[in-house]
Amino acid sequence: MTIANLIPLPATRADWLKLRQIGIGGSDVAALLGLSKWRTPLDVYISKIETPEESDNASMEWGRRLEPVIRQKYAEAVGMEVSVPGVMFQHPEHEFMIADVDGIRTDGRIVEIKTARTQQGWGEEGTDEIPDYYKTQVQHYMTVLGINSCDVAVLIGASDFRIYTVESDPELEALLIEAEADFWHNHVEPQLPPPPMTIEEMKVAFPVSKKAAVEATDEVFDHVEQLALVTEKLKALKEEEETHKAAIQAAMGEADTLSHLGQVICTWKSSKPVARFDSAALKAAMPDIYNQYLKTGAPARRFVLKI
Fold first, then answer.
1. Distance of alpha carbon 167 from alpha carbon 307, whole angstroms
2. Coiled-coil stretches, from where to where (predicted)?
3. 276 confidence band (pLDDT: 50, 70, 90)
4. pTM of the predicted model as reported, rounded to 2 decimal places
């Protein structure tokens, strides 16, 4: 069993965000492994080297607001007190691994608090069947603290309270240590960003083209073929959409509402006229003024599929 280093948590959220830059936290791990729906390795990298921003959304806000309530419900359900540590844990050997856990029971078990809109990804209560991006998070916590089990208390859909138990997995632990060490030593410390993964990241990483050609590997060519198939499917679906929409609009005529058995199923209403600036008319009438206020934008790359 390892004994983690303890770092007192700061008083403000801004300072807490800055403290998280000293290492990789549990919420970073899924992104590093490509399991996150919300973040990429490049997102994690940026969060570690740039001044942290106070970003928030409704789900994050309500998760924080409900955390004490869910923690208390869990304590009542298991008949044990759950304390909030008030410290950041740091792995004694792999110091780039940090953990800010939601609670620790009186017997030492970690407790992680979650909220979820739906039960998708959550299995039968009492099992370890939780979404993979949360499973890697709690395994990270168990690795840092040297603890063998963690309970996940989740409130699903604001009314379905469940408790899951995840045991430490030595193989997953080794995988996490290796992946996090690689990310920290090969990207964060030398400040070398990982490769972009999303379309938006590609636009930032490669904003301008140059006259050159590269040979596609078999893997990349497979992506091209799959993209061609998807593009054809989308085109067919778009044509089908237009067919159905035209039939519906023909049935509605000038009426703005379509009902079925007393229920409104479609509307087709006129919008207010929109006033738009006629730049073409200005250019024709006053070309000097038009050119005076022209602003050159950043170059943009257009992707074209050729097969």
1. 49
2. 227-254
3. confident
4. 0.74
